[in-house]
Amino acid sequence: MNRPLWQLAAIRIVLFGLLAALAQMAVVFSDYYFNDAELGRLLVEQQVDALGEGISGAAPKIGYTLPDEMDDLFVPGSGYYARVRTPDGAVMFSACDMACQEHFLPPTVQPPDFWVRTIALGKPLHIAGGGTATHDGQKLLIEFATIGDPDGLVWGVLWREVLDHLIVPMSILLVFVIGGTIISIRSALRPVKAAATAADRLDPLHLDQGLPTTEMPEEIGHLTRAVNRAFLRTGELIRSQRMLTSAIAHEVRTPLSIIKLELSLLDHPTARRAETQVDELSDFVAQLTALARLEAFDADHFVPTDLALLGEDLVGVVAPWVLERGDDIAFEDHGATPVTIAPNLIRDACRNLIENAVRHTPPGTAITVQSGPGPTLRVIDEVPENANAAKSSEGLGIGLSIVERVLDLHGAHLERVQTARGMVVTITFSDHPRTLLK
Amino acid sequence: MRILLIEDNDRLRDLTSAALRTAGWQVDAFALGADGLEALALVPYDAVVLDLGLPDIDGLDILRTLRGRSVQTPVLVLTARGAVDERIDGLDAGADDYLTKPFNNGELLARIRALLRRSPQSVMPELVVGNVTLPLSGETVRCGEIAFDLAPRERGLLEMLMRQADQVVSKRKIEHAFSQFGDERSANAVELSVSRLRKKLEGADTGFLIETIRGVGYLLRTAK
Fold first, then answer.
1. What's this model's pTM, rounded to 2 decimal places?
2. Chain A residues within an 8 Å CB radius of B9
3. Does position A376 have pLDDT exceeding 90, yes or no?
4. CB–CB of B50/B63 below 8 Å?
5. Could you give the domains of chain B?
6. B108-124 burial string, b = 16+ CB within 10 Å, else e?
7. Which of B98, B104, B161, B173 is most worth mutating to test chain A (most A CB atoms within 10 A of its CB)?
8. Higher pLDDT, A351 or A287
9. Does A222 touch chain B (CB under 8 A)?
10. Residues of A in contact with B214 (CB under 8 A)
11. For all residues of chain A together, what is the average pLDDT?
12. Residue B186: CB partners within 8 Å, gap ≥ 6?
């Protein structure tokens, strides 16, 4: 299934965003992981901030309790040490033995805002440091040291860096980039969608109407204009073919008349057979002309029409020919509703169906044209009881092309049902003829 | 009867003229529209057979000129175009009927006879279809030696059908004609009259049949 372009673009942006994030992550990781001094500084900074959460109370009675989540960290022998004291040396919290005290600043030293000291180079980290925190105007010195970072706190530092400097800003960026892209694509493709709808409704015989090109992105506008030029060339080709067909059909009519009149002067069975063949050729020429005529069709020809009157009139016109062929024809109205159609074309189409019914059935066939119920026209043929009902649904030839083209212009539907004694052909009209939707 | 034929194709003009002459009519035939118009100004023709595709003047313009001169002569248009809209254009321009090429003798003569029968200008003393003669003066309708005793409504109905022989006359049109005679029971009256007319013509060699086209009307169909 084809996905909409905006979805494809969004998926690709996310995919490339993830790749960029991975690359960025590798850069960040190498930047920090192989820079022990910076990594140590960040670890101290993070732990000083975390230890600072335990300061409580108000000056001058400020107290300190180690945050619960750090209880397990600063136990003897854990490899982690912490101390909180005032600038004048009063210790408020200490998880530090005598050995560690030598890593911290002496109590008499006025604390700087932040300090770090590498105890031993390389990994795992051996580091000590501290920073000041101010609570209710009271300054406190918070110190942290680790010998070997046994719990791997450094990974937390790295994760925090990735989160703060990569995941959060990239996520925000992605949301805006994807949103902006989707809006841009959808707004750029709106005229393309309109062009696609217009293309669906394009009448193959009026291709010169083309597709709309206004407000399109330049590249798609260029493609649409190229498609329109191709349509024009195709339209001209179809028109010239139809003109040729029409001209041939027109020019051949007079010679056919002469042949028919010449043949009528000959009193010979061969002449009668030739007359039949000329009649068939004449029918074919008439069909070609009818097909060519459809090209000149205009939506203005659609008018509200009473199907009952149309059916009755048509039966009146074809009845002499049908009876001459030995068949019978009748008209019935079953409550047809008014429809908006091109009556001449529908008359042509129904006439084709009637002629087909006559030509492909044995003499004595009863043909009934029904209008209604609803927006329908039916041509029903019923062969005599003792005759062979086998009648192919094929054989309409060019007539079928005319019927299909006419019904297509009307957005009408044709249904053919073989019955025990013949065929029922039903035309159901749409409430919205296709041509009127343009 | 004198008929004017305007057709530019020499062979078709000769064949058509011959067919019309064989039917017993006098024929003046021209290849150009201008010659035909000149002849029309001089001779009171009973009917005109006009080809639309002439080399000098469009057939439709000839028709319009003719009707513009208030000439009511019935005109049968011959068209090689055949499109419904073009036929309508022809009828709008004043044609009385059209015949699409290719046609045969029988069709051409039947159409001209129908035109002559229908024409309000017709100077025919009687209508003749098949073997039946209907004098327009009101005398008895005859088929050879047989005289039919027809009621006025039956005679009116037969006249309508004979004037449009081989074409369907809608029941609505007959009902309308009957109601003009003040008959309010026209729907049943038409069927009754047709039934009585058929019965009266029964047995006679009329040369035609009155067919019912169910849901539409009636067709006086001549034997081919």
1. 0.59
2. 254, 258
3. yes
4. yes
5. 2-118 (3.40.50.2300), 126-222 (1.10.10.10)
6. bebbbbbbbbebeebee
7. B104
8. A351
9. no
10. 330-332
11. 84
12. B174, B175, B176, B178, B179
Residue A393's pLDDT band (cuts 50, 70, 90): very low
ipTM of the complex in this document: 0.77
Give the H/E segment covering residue B221.
Answer: strand B217-222
Is A316's Cβ below 8 Å from some Cβ in B?
yes
Q: Which residues of B touch A256 (CB under 8 A)?
A: 101-102
User: How many C-beta atoms lie closer than 10 Å to residue B187's C-beta?
Assistant: 14
CA A400 – CA A407 distance, rounded (Å): 10
How many residues does this entry show for chain A? Answer: 438
What is d(CA B77, CA B90) in angstroms, rounded to the nearest whole number?
Answer: 7
Whole-angstrom distance, CA of residue B16 vs CA of residue B105: 8
d(CA A41, CA A21): 25
| Domains located in chain A, CATH noted | 35-151 (3.30.450), 218-294 (1.10.287.130), 298-437 (3.30.565.10)
